[in-house]
Write a structure and sequence with these properties.
- The structure is a homodimer of 314-residue chains.
- Chain A is of the alpha+beta class.
- A nine-stranded antiparallel β-sheet of chain A has the order 14-4-5-12-11-13-3-2-15. In chain A, strands 6-10-9-8-7 form a five-stranded antiparallel β-sheet, with no helix packed on it. In chain A, strands 1-16-17 form a three-stranded antiparallel β-sheet, with no helix packed on it.
- Chain A is 12% helix and 24% strand.
- At the A-B interface, β5 and α4 of A face β5 and α4 of B.
Chain lengths: 314, 314
């Protein structure tokens, strides 16, 4: 058996109808209509127009520099404006420089910040009111058609996986792989972004609406996910020597342009994105024998590529 | 903020009713009944009786010895009898010794075996008929009460996460974190266990019923999940030097007893397990403000402990 062939098809998919609603794409074509031939995810992306992509905003992007390289985090001010502003203020004061990754728990989270909670926060806030959810009104919410265990509706808002409760008109970010959240104590208002975590395993959706999510890792996730797991309780590094030092955290806009990583994200409010979702719901390549016909919000990784358009980077 | 306090509550849960069905536990107590006070997952496990645990069967256990340590895989002959028998035959011929981990793709799978597919398989089979699903009849299936995106019913069979379709009377293992499956080419019957993978990220449930699952990692998962990601296509290690050598794979029963790892698993067909599930569905500790009220089958890690009963090991 050729090793390269195994799962060759698992990265790609099919496309039932490029310009219709996702929910409709799974249905039989109406009389007189002909569904276009299935396309793979790669084909959907290859045929995307420049307008299907948007540049990642350097004002809402963090670079966390580790000895192993750069982790890039896109922030979500539409969901957590106060925490995002506070984290950016902390970064601008170089608060995180010389702090460390203090925890790596298998199939759960990597966490970083000040293990002692003693470093001065300058003009930033040490605590902030929780931003677990917000009104759904005004959000460009692309709804997925499939049932979710935890929420009545899931989908995407400007690239971020989210959930929505139409009954109460509320929306919130959800804990998918790579999402970044704010550590806190028992008091809901005890966090501020001085301590952050990234999800490195199965989506811990029970944390939804219990923690303020502020963004997601869009490049360098492997630098976090491969860190040795901590042997202490809950994956904390028992010995200070095990901790991974953070060289710096900067707002991308503050970094000289020549040193920035220019990235683009696939927009999530387009027909192309709908087609991409459909290609994840039903994969018709020969390798797949039973198309799932469904997709979980955490199984639709939003595509990021270098601004030169050459290669998806995550 | 004390780092240790963050998510202290995330490992534990609550218990609404220890001796009732999981589905009923979420409902209001009937008139005249009083729900027992909520308990945490830890409390549920602490109060478990010896009969709530079962020893892991060495006849259906593999030890994969890596330079970094031992990975322990529990096999699932009730779902994939022919593949399990074949993998055990391969192990007994020392087929895997000196082969390698050849792939590590972030948020997806680690894969091992013979990258060239040339090593003789001796008395084992090079290919086998697929075992993607089986009749559900006769399986001790503990059903979870919550909706699942991909299947009409999910639950557990002798410790393994599974799904069931009552309409067609079929059952299958599902691709949760740590599950081990059989690589294959496009032909469904082209696998045999000479190439295996383990899930290291968000459950790739689109693979359900498209690949034969044969077991799950019950110890040493971190030895796989922290491997450097491959820089090649789909996470394959481009250079042979990047591959992680496999010292040996053995059936535990063939290893001298003094060298075995004695493990016990929480049984999944007991009232204690129901209580454990409920403690994962609703976590009432002070840290949690919004109990999920639901749980995904892949968010109920089955508990494994050393046979001395001292410590959960995953």
């Amino acid at each position: 058996m050729a090793a390269m062939a195994v799962f060759a098809a698992s990265l790609v998919g099919s496309l039932a109808a490029a310009s219709v609603r996702v929910a409709a794409a799974a249905e039989e074509p109406a009389e007189g209509e002909r569904a276009p031939p299935p396309r793979t995810s790669s084909e959907v992306l290859e045929s995307a127009s420049p307008a299907d992509w948007r540049p990642v905003d350097p004002q809402n992007t963090l670079y966390m520099e580790l000895p192993s390289g750069r982790v890039i985090i896109e922030l979500a001010p539409m969901f957590a404006p106060h925490h995002v502003a506070n984290i950016e203020a902390l970064a601008r004061e170089h608060y995180f420089d010389g702090l460390a990754i203090v925890r790596s728990q298998d199939n759960y989270v990597v966490q970083w910040g000040d293990p002692d909670g003693k470093r001065p926060v300058g003009n930033a806030h040490r605590t902030l009111a929780a931003e677990f959810e917000r009104p759904s009104r005004g959000l460009p919410f692309t709804v997925l058609p499939d049932p979710d265990t935890y929420a009545s509706e899931t989908g995407f808002v400007e690239g971020f996986p989210a959930a929505r409760d139409p009954k109460f008109g509320r929306a919130w970010l959800v804990h998918c792989y790579g999402m970044v959240g704010v550590g806190r104590d028992n008091d809901v208002d005890s966090g501020s972004g001085t301590e952050l975590y990234a999800v490195i395993g199965q989506a811990p959706r029970h944390l939804d609406r219990n923690a303020t999510l502020v963004g997601r890792v869009i490049q360098g996730m492997n630098l976090l996910s491969t860190l040795p797991r901590g042997s202490g309780e809950m994956g904390f590094y028992d010995k200070p020597s095990e901790r991974v030092p953070i060289k710096s955290v900067r707002v991308a806009a503050d970094v000289p342009e020549s040193q920035r990583t220019q990235l683009q994200e696939l927009r999530t409010d387009t027909a192309t994105f709908m087609a991409y979702v459909e290609s994840r719901r039903n994969r018709h390549e020969e390798w797949f024998k039973v198309p799932a016909g469904r997709v979980d919000v955490c199984n639709v990784p939003v595509v990021v590529r270098s601004a030169s358009g050459t290669k998806a980077s995550r």
